Known about the structure:
Helix content: 25-40%
Protein name: Leucine-rich repeat protein SHOC-2
Domain Protein kinase: 25-288
Number of helices: 9
Distance between the termini: 49 Å
Shape: globular
Bound molecules: 2',3'- cyclic AMP
Oligomer: single chain
Largest sheet: 5 strands, antiparallel
Binding site for ATP: 54
Amino acid sequence: ADELQNRFPSVTVDSKFPIIPYERLEEQSILGRGGFAYVMKARHLDWRQEVAVKCLWTRQLEGSEQEVMYSEARKLNLGSRSDHVISLLGVCLDPNFAIVMPYMENGSLAGLLRDVDVPWALRWRMAHEISLGMTFLHCQNPQILHCDLKAENVLLDGDFHVKISDFGMSKWKIKSRVVTQTSPEGSTITHAPPEYFADINLAPNPKFDVYSFGVLLWEMITRADPYGNAINSALIRLAVTSGQRPDMTLVPTGPPDVITVSQLMQTCWSQNPEDRPTFQDCAAQLQLVKDR
Ligand code: ACK
């Protein structure tokens, strides 16, 4: 804890993370690159286990980036208590702060949908598991809002079970006050709800994630990119604000249960946040579909 506190003078260190010496990790390959971090596949030499390590590009952390990274680690630490949220194995402190998590053999749901025609029964099981993971996050006290739920941020283990990941945009919410200073500005535009475009200072709330889940269901049903033909983000904003949504003509009607799930999808992306269900409602409905 002292080592952590030295590393994060601007935040209150109140959690116990296992600290993993970086030299016990054997670097293997780069899995992905992001704004201020990249994800690397590595092997833990003592545990003989493959891990994924989220590392910062720069050694010197800005105050706000420090907070983002540290609070991501705290949320992942909680994730260990849900089957459907990625867990934290530990953190590295040197040479850079890094987050170590289990390696997910089947990569992201976005990658899977791109490469494989996933069976419908498996799609519904995944959708159900996502709603269970999101229920877990929204039921934490303080509540955790993901604010960047999309197929890319859903990881799949060796048996294609779901782990929600990437809490880089996520927020803690205490009553009506959102705790971290970061606004949802970095959230993915295709998955952000209309009320967010209308008021950029709007405190994120759970209905933000439910809207994103609607778009994610569309991604799972169509295997396409939402607004794939829009030329720029300003047009997407305008379209979503005026009530347009991803293309319904790409939703097939033949396969079993697509009609039921696409009705749920449409309530999730309702214009009025109050008309959107909770993740508990979604989980209950998807459980019925999954068990049919
Ligand atoms: O689709 P992907 O292969 O799965 O590309 C992205 C990339 O890193 C950027 O996020 C992959 N990734 C992230 N975390 C993990 C993890 N724990 N296990 C395996 N792959 C991961 C993700």
